Amino acid sequence: MELKQEMARSLLKTSSLSVRTKLLHQTGLSLYNTSHGFHEEEVKKKLEQFPGGSVDLQKEDSGIGILTLNNPSKMNAFSGVMILQLLEKVIELESWTEGKGLIVRGAKNTFSSGSDLNAVKALGTPEDGMTLCMFMQNTLTRFMRLPLISVALVQGRALGGGAEFTTACDFRLMTPESEIRFVHKEMGIIPSWGGATRLVEIIGSRQALKVLSGALKLDSKKALNIGMVDEVLQSSDETECLEEAQEWLKQFIKGPPEVIRALKKSVSSGKELCFEDALQNERDLLGTVWGGPANKEAIARRRKFDK
Q1: Least CB-packed of 137, 162, 227, 284 within 10 Å?
Q2: 293, 255 contact by CB (below 8 A)
């Protein structure tokens, strides 16, 4: 069995893969680096100057992680330190091999109001804005490529950067009284954490243009109607809606981690790669599970039923 898995890993390395495909295969790689004028350590030093709040990660035995944006006095707005902590948590999740799913939520019944205005005011030059943009696009792209099925649990408000963060998740659930709103236009800017690009993929270019240019308030009914969210939960209670979200997610992560993770990687490839590269990647991923324990066990079960 180990020999087969080693052969599959070797095939991943030796296949004729495009650069983008290789990026998907490897964890820890970012969109931007020094060749783009992006110097991560310099950005980190700037962001460290803006404390407040935390990004907390709880990993359950069920294979579900719970990522909590915790800065309730500012509607869970991202301070500089929280932006750094988000990257740290993504790096931690990249090495969580037992993980299958992830729920992102905000503390105290609201999701996130985006960036902390204190940091925004201090980082006031176009260069500062583009640097922060590259940092967050790096982080959320790595987040999006995690081999975990992710769900944004939207309670209260998801505004600005908070709304953008929801688009980096595979699915979105809303409580009945919650709202999502891309308020960037009213701040004199555009989405910069990758939110506009991902929103087009989720709801299409025409709807995305309406949502962004109108700074539309998407309540749960409207968001469900345009395909922004997958389901409206029954409860608005913080504990109960988290339990609902966990039950909702469990239907998609039932099974061995290696199979669920390979499925997520395969879908990510289909979304990001050209057709031929995605097919090759699907083939390579198959080699990591074909003949594996889950496959053999499923075949053995089927044989019992066939007798």
Answers
A1: 227
A2: no
> Does pLDDT of 69 surpass 60?
yes
If asked whether residues 89 and 198 sit together in one domain, one would say yes
Q: Is residue 22 part of a domain?
A: no
Residue range(s) defining the domain that contains residue 271 = 255-299
- The answer to whether residues 152 and 271 belong to one domain is no
pLDDT in tens, 257-275: 999 999 999 999 999 999 9
Q: How far apart are CA 57 and CA 95, in angstroms?
A: 14
pLDDT for residue 14: 47
Q: Tell whether the model's pLDDT for residue 124 goes beyond 90.
A: no
Distance, in Å, from the CA atom of 109 to the CA atom of 161, rounded to the nearest integer, reads: 17
Minimal CA–CA distance to 194: which of 121, 109, 247, 132? 132
The Cα 68–Cα 107 span in angstroms is 6
Helix ranges (DSSP H) in 145-274: 161-167, 195-203, 205-213, 220-225, 238-253, 257-272
Cα–Cα dist 257/194, whole Å = 28
